[in-house]
Write a structure and sequence with these properties.
alpha/beta; two-stranded antiparallel sheet; 8 helices
Amino acid sequence: REKSLEAIMKFSTIITAGGTSSRFGNTNKLLEKINGKEVIKYTVDAFSDCGIDEIIVCANKSIISELNSILDGVKIIEGGKTRQESVYNGLMVVNCDYVLIHDGARPLISCDVIKNTMQAVIDKKAVSVMTKTIDTIKEVDENGKIIRTIDRSKLYNTQTPQAFEYNLIKTVHEKLKGQSFTDDAGMAETLGYDVYMIEGDYRNIKVTTKSDLAIAKEYLSG
């Protein structure tokens, strides 16, 4: 029987864990526990359980030793001063045909979304997981005055993972090296590459504050 393309192609995941958790408080949010298990471990396990060939965690130097004791079967490297630099460090060590890039602070990513992303990137070469914007969006000037209400019918909120053909995103990062993009899809768009939307999941929240952690705990305990 013919193997599926996902079985033939090699997929790596770069998980960004280089932040300082400045908006969270005195502790690193990735090491916070939900039901006895660290946020970062939920994130890594989601990809590990979904058949990803290789996982690279690009971590803040201050938590590398703790990550080594928490995580098995992943490569942990030092991240950079910016998210962009951390991803680039990861791109330099992965060995794959396609790479998924995911925020370490999104522990609720589902295997369904990961699988859909893997399938889509083979065809599209550059994809981003997104959810349709449900709030009304206003444009406001510097004085706080509302200028206009923006039509939300074509607006989406960006999540991760974002996924790319490896050579494409490596080229993008090399061309835009030293800048401070917070979004790999945005980097590809800047250089004129087409990036396509993958339907995300509203539960795939990013843990930034303690209230986010409480919401994640509710979802993971459900």
